[in-house]
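Worked problem 6 (solution included).
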Amino acid sequence: MQYPTLADYLRSGQALAKGPLALIFAEDTVELDSTLRHYLKLGFKSITVFMPDAFDLAEDLNAQVHRVTLTCTPRTVVFDTINQIISAALGQWIHYAYNAEYLFYPYCESRSIGEMLSFHTEERRNAMMTHVVDLYAGDLQAHPNGVATDQAMMDKTGYYAHTRHDGTGQPLERQLDMSGGLRWRFEDHIPYERRRIDRIGLFKARKGLKILPDHTFNEPEYNTYACPWHHNMTAAICSFRAAKALKSNAGSTFDIPSFLWSNSIPFEWRSDQLLDLGLMEPGQWF
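Solution. The predicted structure is:
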């Protein structure tokens, strides 16, 4: 189904009637089709892609996803759109990502997104912490935009957690600022406010909930990585977005002949690898 405007999409309600919902924001066409196929494979009941009319989709995908005409710039457009959808999809689980980003959660090869969120809900959690794991091409001569899904690389180390503080300098309970990956290694080219790699990538819509431009929510408990009594499951968003940005920006592309360093390893496109590296947590789900 195609909707010419966000208002038409919200008015219809068809795409928001049954979740979990995946909202994919297309900043360009890089790996757009593979992104949508990944989310179809995970079992999302409704997948919506927000993209300009000029972007093309594979014919089979047009029949399986909802398409809304939207230009995803400036970046505040994405957050404004999500907030409008929150108000229209109360009670639904929502995931949001950009093209060339791929959600992984523990055992996602054999368990659907619905199964995972049912368990997470039983643990009285309304949101899930996700870490953005930067992917990048190993050979920038062959892949000058930094993207190569068949030869994707990632960092095996260099991830850090910092206690998050409020405006008065007091530590916030069970909230962390995460750093690492390309945003850490090439921080001179990344604005300070965009260096964090933590994102509340899965959340349940409720009345009054708002997502903020720093990927946090106005409800403090939504920003926590676990409940007070035990560890909860976390997930990962494996993303070429930072690589794309660093190689498309004239201010950084010529300073980066390669993303490789001593701690680069091939990304294996499986959840076990992310679990073994400690980049996501199974919690009590076995």
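Discussion: The helical segments are 6-12, 32-42, 59-62, 76-88, 113-122, 181-185, 241-248, 271-276.
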